[in-house]
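Figure S4 source data
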Amino acid sequence: MRYRAVISYFGAAYVGWQRQLNGLSVQQVVEEALERVFGAPTPCTASGRTDAGVHAEGQVIHFDADTSIPEDKIPFAVNTELPEDVSMLLCEKTNEDFNARFHAKRKTYCYRLYLSRHRRPLLDPTHEHITVPLDVTLMRDASHLLEGEHDFKCFEATGSAIKNTVRTLYQVKISTGSLPTIPMPTPDPALAQVPMLLNLTDPREFNCTVDIYVTGNGFLYNMVRIIAGTLVYVGMGKLSLDDVKKTLETGDRTLAGKTLPAKGLHLIEVNYEDF
């Protein structure tokens, strides 16, 4: 019987999803857990690789197993064998020909930032820390330039052997959220919480989280991290909208922003439509 499952993991301790010789992968710990539950080697296939340090909220896998465990009970059994930073959230029977990798139609990633003068230890493991304000409105304008079908070789890190670098981005969306205000050590209730605000006429935002959601039919090596870095540079004023257009037109990687660290990247969802 073929099963489809959704896996969530905190990627800091792993060399990525795929098994590798240089360290522990998420795939290894999941397959070892499945083997202990089912009593037989149980290879699994994911929707795609995530790199070292990248997290997943909705990675999809498939595997074959001959078991009497009801499908809705399999996550409970598997999670007892998994480390605390990996969890199976859902498991269901699926078509025998379902393939988590080849049948995926679109994926959504989110790159998470927080804008704060000082480091926030509870956010830092899963967000990139930006210490200056960003013009999020301008970042949204730039994000729309990336939507549609383009040759994204300018947003690909070196080292990839992929020849076809044309991809379609269905949506690039940016949302913001507030950070907890900082309690001030004063008995005066009027001064109990004093947020650090910018000038009211300043379009930039600060003391907030910024989530950059990117939905596409496929992604190049480090593509979302470079897109996020480019949008951050736009928000800082280091790149203009014309610069983003020129980057896409020329395919020149040196014109785009830097590759942001892996810790801010999250695989959110994989969509299969007909499955």
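Figure S5 source data
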Amino acid sequence: MSWLILIAYVVIFIGLVIAAAIYQRRTRKDRRPFPDNFKLLRAPGETLRRRTTQLSENLAMYFFIALGIPVVVSFAFLWVTTHLEGRFQLYGLVITVVALLLSLVFAIRQLLAVLNRWTNHELGCFGERIVGEALEPLKAAGFRVFHDVPAGDDKAPFNLDHVIVGPSGVFAIETKTRRKGRARSGFAEHEIIYDGQVLAYPWGEDRHGLDQALRQAHWLQTWLGQLLGNNIPVQPILTFPGWMILRRGKGAVAVLNPREIPAAVALRGAPVLDAAQIDLVSRQLEARCRDVEF
């Protein structure tokens, strides 16, 4: 009976903690000082910030679940073992220890996976803030800059990390904040080589970021065309905060360090968009981005 009481206590305690956290979150929102329709523009890394905040708020719940799973499993097996006799009781103890170890490994792995997602989101958000800061000088030159633009549809939503609108056209920027890894022979750990077709990282090659930047620029161009009734080309840019980019070829996607972006999008010839077009495109993007509420 004592084991059942202990198991019931653990389950009730975890349930009360989760219920209290949910209740507290809801009451905080009910007492906000802003009007219900008050919304801000998205800042750099808004989507990742929201995910990080969500994980942070749920971290205590994940911790107690991870703590409770091994306890409940081991006590359940131990309770069954106490009702066995002879050698079967010994087998039950062995099984209980194995179940405890397995459930403990499972719980720790799940908790570490949550912490890993949290650190990855935090890193990505910081990288997008670096890019956002690098784009600030463009505003003085007549450009409009939007961050974390919601895109896609309900079935396949995604976001455009940054969109620049100005006299030289529209640019869709995809940010990749990559941790540095062990470099292969002949590669520097802080450099990415772009030959116009493939990205060569210190540890290997791929096209993932390039293809993603192309798809997102195409989506934005199609969306603007359907909305405004005329085709406005969108140029894709892929940027890597903290990395040096060695370009050995020209491709459909411009691969740049964030500090290189202002010079790359600066107007060098006749304007592609006039003031009226810049304002029209900007108003459509602002309507999508103004959804940040408390």
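Residues 87-135 form the longest helix (49 residues). The chain has two domains: 2-129, 138-292.
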